[in-house]
Amino acid sequence: MIERVKVAVVGVGNNTSALVQGLALYRQSGSLVGIRRPTIDGLGVGDIDVVAAFATSEEKVGRDLTEAIFLAPNNFPRLDCDLPRAGVPVTKGLVDASEVRRVAAALAGAEVLLYSAPSGRPETAQAYAEAAHTAGVAFINTTSDPVARHPRWIDRFEAAGLPLLGDDLASQFGTSVLHNALLRLLQERGLTLVSSYQVNLGGTEDFRNLVENPNTKKQSKLNALSDADSVEVAPLGYLPHLASQKVAHLNLEAQGWGETAVSLDVKLKVHDPSGAAGVNIDLIRIAASALRNGRGGHAAEATSLFKSPPGTAI
Amino acid sequence: MIERVKVAVVGVGNNTSALVQGLALYRQSGSLVGIRRPTIDGLGVGDIDVVAAFATSEEKVGRDLTEAIFLAPNNFPRLDCDLPRAGVPVTKGLVDASEVRRVAAALAGAEVLLYSAPSGRPETAQAYAEAAHTAGVAFINTTSDPVARHPRWIDRFEAAGLPLLGDDLASQFGTSVLHNALLRLLQERGLTLVSSYQVNLGGTEDFRNLVENPNTKKQSKLNALSDADSVEVAPLGYLPHLASQKVAHLNLEAQGWGETAVSLDVKLKVHDPSGAAGVNIDLIRIAASALRNGRGGHAAEATSLFKSPPGTAI
Amino acid sequence: MIERVKVAVVGVGNNTSALVQGLALYRQSGSLVGIRRPTIDGLGVGDIDVVAAFATSEEKVGRDLTEAIFLAPNNFPRLDCDLPRAGVPVTKGLVDASEVRRVAAALAGAEVLLYSAPSGRPETAQAYAEAAHTAGVAFINTTSDPVARHPRWIDRFEAAGLPLLGDDLASQFGTSVLHNALLRLLQERGLTLVSSYQVNLGGTEDFRNLVENPNTKKQSKLNALSDADSVEVAPLGYLPHLASQKVAHLNLEAQGWGETAVSLDVKLKVHDPSGAAGVNIDLIRIAASALRNGRGGHAAEATSLFKSPPGTAI
Amino acid sequence: MIERVKVAVVGVGNNTSALVQGLALYRQSGSLVGIRRPTIDGLGVGDIDVVAAFATSEEKVGRDLTEAIFLAPNNFPRLDCDLPRAGVPVTKGLVDASEVRRVAAALAGAEVLLYSAPSGRPETAQAYAEAAHTAGVAFINTTSDPVARHPRWIDRFEAAGLPLLGDDLASQFGTSVLHNALLRLLQERGLTLVSSYQVNLGGTEDFRNLVENPNTKKQSKLNALSDADSVEVAPLGYLPHLASQKVAHLNLEAQGWGETAVSLDVKLKVHDPSGAAGVNIDLIRIAASALRNGRGGHAAEATSLFKSPPGTAI
């Protein structure tokens, strides 16, 4: 029997809620619904234990992880499964680099540190990477803050035989994936794109933050599209009632033979945190497997799971 | 300067209207909008002349091809280009096999015979193939009637150094192409399909015929889908006001991580005859190129352009 | 405290399932969600008891009503409420007119008979009306079979001081209601309709029956539309996975000032049996109130709840 | 034969383009497509002449009105009709109140002044009202700047026997009209609204201005909805390729009987300037008719054509 992976997570938001609940659900049901890779190097979906969690919210610190994931502003739904107490109280996250040692100590016993906090605080991301390095733990950076894009960090982790995966997780399924697939399909079939737009609506705290800082995200959305010149991205809409569900409206207007019109209208509904957890489950197993096999630094098989893997401009 | 391909067409319906008008449009504009392959073995989109056309409708026979394509029940729109008289009067099509010689004689000067009549009359399709063989002309069967699926026919054409391409043209862009791309995308991303449906609405004569014989088409639509078990195809709807435009509504319900719902609703609008002409333009050039290079029988590069290429069960 | 209405129902299909479960749900929750009229003549939504039920299916007869409503082919979902045993075993329904007396006897204690069987058996509908008349019970005909449209039947019930409501229940909310509202809105705003279509998809046994007999329903759908000339109704699609959910796609193309295009695309999802039960709850209370107040025959306030009220051609 | 109405317009934007082109189209075609009221007090749609036009853009001033309406940033499409030169050169609009007399002089011969400039400059709106009053001309304020809401202005115009219609034109057909109609329909049928959203996308200069000042418009959109508490309005999206076309995505989630889900998704496409011109054509005729009949001040029949008619809070 394979030894379960011991993971620590930074951030007890919706993505962590989706991960923790999903682990319970799949362990109980044995189901493989929504799973991209049933096993990675022998590790199944249920072969993961969360052994530590860090958060900055006063309300979450000290609570059992299985309670903390339901506290506001989290709004990922309660999945239809039992959720036995984790016995993992949420630890106070680090506020500045002076706390690296404390965090490293708290990582004792963990093999992988999954950094799943909100984007936008590169010093914090790097302080956790430092702590992971100190503790001899693999590090996964799901945020857009640059860590794995820095050759310096990759080199340090590689030298230590520790995997470093990042940056900026690419969702299992979301607007960019869908929009790109449709743009590619039109191109592949020889249609000529005339115009295209994308509207994204959501109700999470992440969404609210992005709405308040719209240009960054809009640009990043455009970068994510293969035919950015002809695509317009409307401002994000923060609609609280959607909770963790994201709704996107896509339109593609094209021309086929004889310059006749081809038109596509799409509505997508998806839970963003599920899209993150569905990739995190693979990243954790890739990191654990690399660690156990003594492969430090970047893991090539993780490249396609990130928007800004090593090699991307910082 | 390359020599233009001389094509004869059987059937003066919407698909031929789209082909003939499109040839004029592209020649005048030099545009490549909606074109999948700008050149095939040096042959551009405009390098094609229609030199003969066969039809059974009394009203079309004897009229110039550029007039006949606008006669009822044709309802493909008039494209925004000049359409100079072709100087090609529509010839009476064959009714039974006794007329093969007459047709073969009428093919003098043609290099390719494009069989673009309605599906459902295999004897007629094969009689035209016979005429093409007699006249030393390449044959393209765009209907679902079996010709190129018969090894016997392939062998005969191959022996004569004549290309034989078929059967059952796969549209440049239509419901099946789109539905399959979406089903594949979900699978590729690890989502689990729960249910899916497809509704097709159209206003052409072809559509009306299919509606009166729905089971055949429904089954064929299902066969065309990669995940047929979970997909339901609603009855075709013949809505005259749509004319040559096809409208399709697609729905895909799936599950991602944690068995959370992912839902996709799509509306597609496209002109079916453009989808056919956009592939015929490639088939004609493939056939002409093969003929000119002395390659008879099946042409491998045409395989993906047919739903039932050689090798498919009859 | 008002005396509860005692209702007998004919037909133990999805509509009866929605009615029976809804009665339990509203009684428990006190909620008024989805309720058009909280009280009718003092009668609340929960003030109704089903005291008898008739069905022809061997499997349903003899079972408690609260079990029978979940038997195949019923597929209305289980609502989120407790459903205490009704203590009402399903009675064998009548097969021919010779059984009117047996049914009348079984109606002892009931005030209202709700006829909620499938449409298409006028003799059966009228035999149940006869039984209601014999037993001194109000009669509601929700099917399209003519009962209340017959002046003879209205006169007989009126003479006996018994309410007779019918025919052909108009759903609380469905495709016709929505399509008509949109057509009226365009007209009211001075837009000119160019074309419109409607596609209906569903998964109930009713839907399956309609699909097998499409012309009737299509015509009836058209009759239900205020601007039938410009509206096209596509064939019904029976998609089993939809279960009791109906999905409709509507399109309206119009022109405004300067003949510029206005276009509307709508997707509706709704549970048909809820649409029926939401009206039945009002009909039952109208019938009971009229009966208790000695008003026999047609009740004017029920007119708008039927597609073919008295006065409609038979 | 009725005497044609002589109208002066302030603002030579898309709305004026739609008005001027539409007048030509209807006069030529005699069509009534998209017309709400064929005649008002004997005045047909074609019985209107634009005799003066004011604009501030250097490029438009001095050009014939029929040329100026096609200059950037205008992007309302060229309608399919002849547009004979108007012989009306665009006059320099007023910049401050000192120019009231010049404008009043330029109004000689006009009966109605249609104020159709961008909203947001109340002093300008009132200066034009002053000029109209001086010149003895009826005034229509289509902007949200307060004029007709001021009892003082109404009184002055009434005393002078001059009609004053305003404020803030309600489009013939747009997102608010549609959303409200759907909200009302659900309510009328007894459904309970759970949530609703609205996304508006457009490509006009007006839209661009609104996007840069989003809160105002969002609030105004909410005010325009009958059930504002449950409706969320996403940020406007300025998508240049849409030009004068507006696209709106609406969603309504509700509950019917048994608290079962009812869901409505709508896509609307409409030309905003047509929606304005289709109402301006009525306002002009109402104003002219009132003026000719000596009825000054507010005209009751115009009340429903404005979002903020007299009596609304300023």
Automatic annotation (TrEMBL), chains A, B, C, D:
GO molecular function, one term: inositol-3-phosphate synthase activity
Coiled-coil parts of chain: none
Pfam families for this protein: Inos-1-P_synth (PF01658)
GO biological process: inositol biosynthetic process
Domain Myo-inositol-1-phosphate synthase GAPDH-like, chain residue ranges per copy: 174-272
Transmembrane segments: none
Superkingdom of source: Bacteria
Xref: PANTHER family: INOSITOL-3-PHOSPHATE SYNTHASE
Protein name per Swiss-Prot or TrEMBL: Inositol-3-phosphate synthase
